[in-house]
Amino acid sequence: MLVNRSIAARMAVFVLVGAGCILGAIIGYSYFAVRRMLMEELRSEAEYMAKAAVNRIETVERSVEKIVQGMAIDLEMSSLSTNDMYQLLRRTLEENRAIICGAAIALDPANGGITNYCAPYVYLDKGQLVAKDLGAGNYHYDVWDWFNLAQKLRMPVWCEPYFDEGGGNILMVTYCYPVFKGDEFYGVVTSDVSLEWLADMLAKISKDIGGYAWLISANGTFITHPKRDLIMNETIFSTAEAHPDPALRAAGRKTGQRMIRGETDFIPFTSVVTGKQGWLYFAPVPSTDWSLAVMFLREHLMEYIFGLNKVNLILGTIGFALLLIVALAIARSITYPLRQLASATRTMAQGDLDKALPEIKGEDEVAQLASAFDNMRGDLKKYIVQLQEATAARERMESEMRIARNIQMDLVPKTFPSRKEFEMFGLLEPAREVGGDFYDYFMPDDQHIFVFIGDVSGKGMPAALFMAVTRTLLKAICRVERNPAFILRRLNDGLAESNDSSMFVTLFCALIDLSTGECKYSNGGHNPPFVVRASGAVTSLPLTGDVAVGIMPKMEFNEKLFALQAGDTLFLYTDGVTEAMNPTGDLFGENRALEELRQTHGATGEQMVKSMREKLRVYAAGAEQSDDITMLAFRFLGEG
Amino acid sequence: MLAAFLAQAVFAEEVTFLLHWSHQAQFAGYYVAKEKGFYQKRGREVVIKRGGYDVDGRACLTEGKPVFCTTMLFTALEDRDKGLPLVHLAQVVNRANFTLVAWKKNGIAKPEDLQGRRVSLWLKEFEAPYDAFFKRYHLQPRKEPQYFTVNLFLRRGVDACAAMYYNEYHTIQQCGIDPEELTVFEMWKHGFDFPEDGIYCMAQTAESQPDLCRDIAEASLEGWVYAREHQEEALDIVMDYVRRGHVPTNRAHMKWMLEKMLVSIFPGPGDKWQFGVLSPESYDNAVRLLREQKLIKNAPPFEDFHRAIGGLNKIEPRTASDCHSRFRGNDTVSK
Question: Which terminal CB of chain A, N or C, has fewer other CB atoms within 10 Å?
């Protein structure tokens, strides 16, 4: 389709496409470069923020661990009464109220052989210290993880966080420390820590990064998340499980597993909770086996990158528009002379070669083309003049040749005497317009007739002229000579005398006595004629052993005799008959001629000649006639 | 008639329906019965109360007021043996869900591998099927008590833990553990398939207020039928209960639980039990097991244990549950 457009349009398109590709490549590169740079920046920012947050959490948790450890050591080292325990708890809480909001010493109910639930507990309620016994009313506190895990794992444990229903539904986490007296389990010291500050801290991170952060427990349970519903209810795995997309389900589960295994990474991630895409940085909180995740939203990043690339895009678009104008202008300036040339060529094609071509300045390709066009115009003009002259000359020559042919044809007789002793018919068909064949007859008196047939060497005008000379000479000689051999000798001398062009003629000459049918003949190198007997037998006349006439002077020619009976025909021909060719180049040959004559014996001379001519035409089957075809049939009727 | 209905509703005596565990989809049918008014339309005002280790069910039952409760068949038989005159009204869960889940990594692949290992179990009430299982394979594992969570197991404090197929087994997966990491011993595949949750009341209530008993059982079963046919709505109701009860759980887990409950409640193709019905054969099997385990000494005859309440046919499920083929398909074959 583009091929059909003008050069200017194509150039503009190619230039724009080229420039567009380059521009696209530059913008694309800059996009990816900026993106890569930003990703690196994001990663380090994420790392920094996550580490800072993890450190803060760790600082608090390590402090809590120290506080609880302190109480545990007190319990292990000394034998405390319940009151002492309350004192210890109060003192600890008083000193660390900024960090912990409750502490308990839960004694092993099975200790000492009798089931006794006793767990002194002191907690902060609206800034006031409140004390109570968790085991009051035989409350089975040993069913809870904070007791059970520490007891069974026999090591300090950070429990799964929980909502403190009694204390204003605050998110809490409990650190539990098993106490042993000797080898025997004695109880569990615990400390409750409010996690409300965690949410605030992560909310601030979320705001800073234009994304959000969350924290999951060792079980994958959400401890903080911008969607509060998730906290303590969902795990990272349950949210993945609830997602309809299997790929995201698998990815969410895999990421969760890596997080709870304590891995650190920065990965592209699609949230199964919000459905938002982005990059996730996660890092473990070692003390509690929690994992912190910071999610950078793709939309924010894209917005930023787009902002950076917007200027590029606007500049690119303006540049593009300018480029379009310039490309069109250049293309048009180049094609303007071409269009002029095209218009001039159209005029030229209509035959007007005189109109000057538009002048094109400069030496560029278009100017060269214009100059070449101008040269062509001049040459064309000259050529046309020459062609006209040549055509005129040829036409003149052809007309002359036509006239010559007419003359030549006039030279051979077309009418034949009508006598009771014989009848005859001749035909000459030149291969070219003027040929070298001829036939003739001459009656020196009432009782005799000369018949001739000859073939001048060569073709065309020279042959025709030579033939004319030959015939004139022959006619002249025949008036004084009655002997074919003499006639040939004198003709030979006459022709050879001033034969600068070394032409010659084969000639058969016969004198027939019309009263007897006796025939005297001499043959100067011509094809021996056929004698077609009335009976149908055909023979060729024996040769006289003479060469063609006009080659050299003072030549002698022989003479022979034969007799024609009534009904016999003497058939004279030139080699144009026997050497006629079919399209494959095979000659007609004497045998075919003999056969044909045998077929037509008894016919008139005219019938015989015309039948032979028809045979030749059929044989040639459209092949070009290569030589003159000349025949003369003399039929002796013998009624003299 | 409307006035009579309203009067009955307003002045109806409040009846406590005590669950044997904290709020979850295990009890979806009862919540649905309450919220969709199936109790109310029978003129009964029901208050559903959660159970658990921190709730003294026996005290509640023996207060004197009419109390209905859900409990396991084993627990009920043990309670009867200890002198608590419980009677059975309807059998909700006819197929067992007890499993034992173990860490593959700790080299546990077959029952014999549990020998001497630390195994946490719900002691006392829900111990019987596990004891039978251990006995069958001559195992003496080190038993640890298991309460509300499987955190002791998750923190590798024990090698195996008790897990209801519909609950803890899935909870463990929701903590990031893949099923491939676990070896699961399904008790019902080891020949210990016994009816679980049923609806019970005190013998005295059954005798003095048979109509009330019938109403409560019927409405509860109707609740289950409705829950099966409207699972998303039932889940909404369950989620409402767990949120109000501050039970930390999520919808995905409740969905799993409801699906597993439904296939344990409604018989599928090839299942021999009848919806809501405790067969004397199942009862006898359970009694035999508990006796063999020496968990009970005596058991009442079936007729004494179970009070026929009639009218259950009205809430027979219309079609065989299609959820059977989706879930426990393989289990059916292996049984």
Answer: N
CB B281 within 8 A of CB B195: no
CA distances (Å), origin A315, targets A14, A454, A457, A489 = 20, 100, 93, 111
- The token pair that represents B62 in the structure block: 């023996």
In this prediction the ipTM stands at: 0.85
Q: Which residues of A touch B159 (CB under 8 A)?
A: none
Nearest by CB: B155 against A153, A165, A233: A153
Count of alpha carbons within 13 angstroms of residue A537, beta-carbon side: 5
Do B175 and A162 count as a contact with CB atoms less than 8 A apart?
Answer: no
* Contacts with A, B 266-325, CB within 8 Å: none
Q: Residue B333 is which amino acid?
A: V
Q: What do you get for the CA distance between the two ends of chain B, in Å?
A: 51
Minimal CA–CA distance to A414: which of A606, A272, A255?
A606
Position B11 scores a pLDDT of: 58
The phi, psi pair for A184, rounded to 5°, reads: -90, 135
- Which of B23, B146, B151, B168 to mutate to probe the A interface, most A CBs <10 Å? B151
Q: What are chain A's domains?
A: 80-196 (3.30.450.20), 203-297 (3.30.450.20), 412-636 (3.60.40.10)
Where on the phi/psi map is residue A502: left (φ > 0), alpha (ψ -120 to 50), or beta? left
Phi then psi dihedrals of residue A358, to 5 deg? -60, 145
Question: B194 is written with which tokens?
Answer: 């016994």
Average pLDDT of B5-34?
Answer: 82
- Distance separating alpha carbons of residues A519 and A541, to the nearest angstrom: 11
- CA–CA separation, B235 vs B229, rounded Å? 12
Q: How far apart are CA A187 and CA A191, in angstroms?
A: 13
Please give the Cα distance from A44 to A50 (Å, whole number).
10
Please indicate if any CB of chain A lies within 8 Å of the CB of B246.
Answer: yes
Instruction: Express each pLDDT in A304-355 by its tens digit.
Output: 777 877 777 788 888 888 888 888 888 888 788 888 888 888 888 787 777 7
- In degrees, rounded to 5, the angle at the alpha carbon of residue A538 between the alpha carbons of residues A534 and A541 is 115
d(CA B111, CA A139): 36
Residues 51-70 of chain B with CB under 8 A from chain A are 53-54
Q: Kindly tell me if the per-residue pLDDT of B312 is higher than 60.
A: no
Contact at CB, A153 and B157, closer than 8 angstroms? yes
Chain A residues with CB-CB distance to B151 below 8 A: 145, 149, 159-160, 219
B148: contact with A, CB 8 A cutoff:
yes
End-to-end Cα separation, chain A, in angstroms: 94
Least Cα separation, residue B194 to chain A (angstroms): 27
Q: In whole angstroms, how far apart are CA B2 and each of A128, B9, B13, B34, B43?
A: 55, 10, 18, 19, 11
Which residues of chain B have a CB within 8 Å of the CB of A237? 173-176
**3-state secondary structure at position B71:** strand
* Closest residue, chain A, to B118 (C-alpha): A152
Average pLDDT value for residue range A219-247: 90
